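Hey, I'm writing a tutorial for new members on how sequence and structure tokens pair up, and I'd like a real worked example in the thread rather than a made-up one. If someone can provide the structure for the chain below, I'll link this post from the tutorial.
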Amino acid sequence: MPAAETDVILGDLGVLLLECGISVTDVRGSLEQVGRRAAPEAAHEFAILPEMVMVSRPGASSATTTVIGKGEARTFRQSARASRLVHELESGAVPLAAAPARMASIRATPRHHPWLQSVIGCGLLSLSLAWLYRCPWWAVALALVVGLLVGGLTMLMMRVRAAAAVAPFVSAFLSTLLVGAVAGWLDLGPVPLFAVCAPVAILVPGALITNALLELTSTDIVTGASRLMYGLIMLAFMAAGVYSGAYLTGLRVDSESAALVGEAVQLTTRSSGWEALPPLWSAWGAVIVLAVGIGLAFGSGFRLTLVCVVVMAGTYAVLALFSPWVGSIVAMGVTGAVLFVAARVLERLTIAIPATVSFQPAFLLLVPGTIGLVSLASFDAQALVSAPMMFLSLCIGTKVGALLADLARITRSTVFQRWTRPARMGEL
């Protein structure tokens, strides 16, 4: 295959992985492995930005190949197919020449009724978060209605490029305005935190900001800084929307409501009826509904939704177990480390489940972005101090998980070599 064509295919593969939400650090590692397999005689170097991949050959007279993406986000199902393709290219099971047709097929993967699925997914996600964080039943029902409305509005605004830029502010403002108006009309007093945050949780850039911190610690300064700035701007827009809606309606957030999973398991109340809290055992049902909502919102498909159920149930169990012992901040880091290692094991043992698909949904349980959103909107000094610590704890935990995965050599090739290679004479 001509060198120029090889470089174009590698660049396009990198763009596809970026569209799937994979960090630039992992994209670079995958491209390096595929490049060594496809062209072992050539040395490739890659420069990667959020929507652009540049491929060059040191010492060669050919110009640098630049491939620019369109910034389109891919569904979880497309991400799984892209992960399968990368693993097959790395192992040599598929030649690089066959990659363009496979990538075109991945980008053309159909999704039935995407608008309806996304709106219903947003509604279920909002309901389940309010339920999981043990808001009163009236807040759970209200979160479902507001989540459906916000989901429909967000989908409409995302169709127009200019409107998409202000979608975080408008969605947060509308959500807070509706919750505050109902709370004032029914004279409910201070409302739980997640009655306000649950309907807009899907827009909170918690995963984006955490990935930005991970890229910064991996010396991907340009990409990490740009992602971090974009995430903070989105967070500021949403905080402005929450603050504006709360100011107009006089909404007040209950300071004793749960902000983290570890706090939710400790809540108690003597109220009954619509003001009662969901029983603690029912939280497992909320986790299942949350995974289904994520599957619909992000286009997972049936099998990947089952994976989301298992991963999110494990995440909830670890958070609920460690939070009473080590505190919420440390528990978040521990959970991040455990979850990252588990995601890598799933990715390497079953090539159809990329770490992005199994790891990203759990950010909605770790919700560092929601903590930052509320701290900005409420101007709570203690919350403003805690929010960066939450981000850093999750970042450190994820980096520790990555280190453990590397030390344990959790890769598809090494694991299967241990099982399938014949024993050498010195090993008998």
